[in-house]
Amino acid sequence: MARGIKKIRWTGEGKVFQSRSNLSTKMVIPPGEFVWFKITEWHTGTTAEDKKKDVSWIWQEHDRNTIIWKRLYPSTFKYAIKLPKKLCGSYSYYLEASLSGKTDSNPTGVYINGLCDKKITASKWCSSVDGSDKRKIPFSYGNNIHLNLETEGLNGDRLIVEIYNIQNLRADKQIHVYTNVKVADGEVNLEIKNTATWQGKINNIQDEEKFYIKVKDQATGQYVLDDNKDDEHARFLRIKNKLVANTPEPPVNNTPLKTGEPSVSEKRYELCKFETMSITETTNKDGKVEQKKVLIFDNGKGAKDVKNEEKPITKTIFFNFDSDVLTKEGLEKLQNTLNFLLVNQHSTITINGYACVIGKMEYNKSLSQKRSDAVKKFFADGKLDSRRIFSTGKGEIRATDNKSGADNLKYKDEKVYVEARRVDVSFKYFGHTAKTIVFETIAPSKDKDLLIDITGFQTNACFRETDKHKKETKITSTEYKAPLVKSGEHITFPIHSALSTWNIAPLQYIWPKWNLVEGAIGNGIDSAEEYNVFIHSCRYFSEKDHSTVLVRAYPDIKWELAFFLNLTNDLSVKWQNQPESKVKELQKKAGKIGAEKRWQQKDASFGFSLKGEWDKGDSGSFNRSKEFKAEYEAKFKKLYGIFSSIGALSEGITSKTKGQIRNIGFKGLPMTIAIKPPNLNIKGTWFLEKTKQKNSTQEVVGTNVDISFNADPLIGLELTIDLLCTAVGLVAGAVSGGTAAPGAVRLYGIIKGKMNTGVDFGNDDFGAKVSSDVFIDLVISSVIKTAIGFSFNTANDTGESKKGKLETTNTLKLELKAGIWVKAEISLVVVKADVYFEVSGKGSASITFGHKVNYDSKGLIYRPQLGFDGLNAEYVIKGKVGLSSKKTVLGTKPESTDEGVISQGKYNEVIPKFDVIKSLEELFGLSADIPLIKN
After folding, report:
1. Which residues face 700 on adjacent strands?
2. Which of 166, 309, 319, 446 can pair with 210 through a Cys bridge, CB separation 3.0 to 4.6 Å?
3. Burial code of 728-767, b = ≥16 C-beta within 10 A, e = fewer?
4. For 886-921, how does the pLDDT look when each residue is reduced to its tens digit (9 = 90+)?
């Protein structure tokens, strides 16, 4: 009962010219588009197991005697064919699918040809078949000349080639016509051997004549054009007026063998192969033991940096004495080689036959050729393109034909003779080896097993001679005394991390993925223990000295940190045009900052603890732990260096802010600028964990960071602006013509009016004092006050690992103050304002501290943001405690019943919008980013 594939059919996918096709036997398709086929019928003797096996899709010449290539795919796959324009034409190729890998004598497949416009795309004159273009070099009459044409839509068609000679004073003359010129593989390679006959057909022959051709489609009689719609091609052939001795012969249409580099693709087709690899490891998370299987290789998908290095291969076939008959061993070896060559159509094959010295030299020469021809016939019978095969009989090895010497039987060396009765089959092999697959995992200090599963592992069809691939896996590591070599498709091997259970202080793993050298934080080396896995086949990883998989085992260690730091003094303060009483207060702040610089220490209180746990056991709990407070407390005392750098940047911010305020229209403005200090506490844990990455199906190991962060504030910038632009002593009348904000001047008028009517402090001169000491200050405090938690993985670039809990929003405090100075104390205030502020809940707030605090590969960076938009004020005028009003405002009652309130109201557009930080950066070309933690 017959077994195997009975029929393939078009799936209906892809364009087909159905009016020109017989959908069961012949398909006409357009160029450059895939058309899909599938197995539709099996012979009745085919078992269910047979139908699950891989099948060979075989692409053949029209006569089905030559296989162009074979491809191996699962039987359930659909297969697609696409033809380029040069292979379109009347010539049909044959496609079939085979369970055995051999062609079927019955018509189980379909014939396919492409259809497109007919065109000549390129032309040249050469001195050899498909050689270099010689149109600029003159030939002589009698030389053999080769015409090469590249075409579209003409493959398999017959052409008429007309030769024309250029005539200067009359119409160009047709001097010869070649008919029945066949297009093969989209090309014409016409060897012209009768150019001597052209010479006598030329009128008024010159020292050098020029020729060109026209090409007709023999079937239609129409001229074939080029891309420019021109019917003249191969311009110009030059022939000088010189005749060389040559016997004119009929032309020969050659088809050159096309060989070249293989295409680098993820798909390979050698029968020596494996298909998938997966690794199963046991994990323990939260006390639960799980087995996780990860597919690390799938039929070449995603293979990176593939190398196709050319290597010469020689296969040797031995013969019996005085015989040219292939032995059983020789047939098996040749079958493997044939299978390889059928799926690697880029190699030519050289067959050299040899004989031993026993017998006559001429006889042995003939015998060696017969042996070579026997091998060639085997390949040809296997439907390998015979144009790729070059067969030669080399005769005797070390032949002398001197029977008194080496040829004399009394000097017989049977081992040498046996090795001489052979045929060497040589070809080029392009290996296929991709970049090593890296598998990262987290391992305990003691051994744990990894299981590698390999599917479709077959090496019995390996064509190699001395270094044939074996169905085995080799694992090497510095931790192994000798390589582990195991056979089969299921391999278990032990791994562990470099962190020892008995390490009493594993501080070198403070950043777990790096083994940090003491005193050289940031210059560490990768902390993984490495295991190289060697699994080889011709199809994907062919080079034996190249590891297929690199397992990197990182230490399983967890760190916990608790830390608080409170600073009391401002980081920086600047001012200009302030009253004397206020200057003293500002000088006092600046003095404290200067003292910190001199002594290189901050007025601060802090606390710290650091704890490590490692070597997780089967229960999921750690076996070892230690607290490292003493080792690191001294280092944290040196934190002045970090905060002094923040202070230096703060100096820059205050200076730039001062300059920017002048730049945007408040020149001469009385103002103060201060950077508020950080007061913070951090609680964090970090450990290694697997995570996802973009454009990758395989997880990698990264450091998982979980932090609880509280700051009041983290950092802040306070800007105080005297909106009246007046110094102490100016009278009210001087304000209206000054540089103050117009809205502020009008608001000043309201306040001044309220102050000068109905406020009695028991002094008749009170109004005059108010006129000279009134101020309106705009106070903007960009302060981050947070209590948040967040986590992320350093190796995750998808955003999925970043999680945060924003417990309190961050606010921009914006306050409008107005009043008088009495003995350097504020007696009256105006408060409340509408604010321009980028709310922290927008964008990526879940992983930011307030405005802009981001973690990336460079560390933890804070960026202050400061601005306001269309300030609208609510004013409330109060009397300072002890200076409260003794009477109402001239016949009216206060607008509020609160004690001490003189007046209140609303006033819009006190000052226009501006963004302080952005303006500073643009003005000075500097960044306002503040590094809090550097990696």
Report:
1. 691
2. 166
3. bebebeebeeeebbebbbebbebbbebbeebbebeeeeee
4. 333 323 344 444 445 656 666 565 544 545 556 545
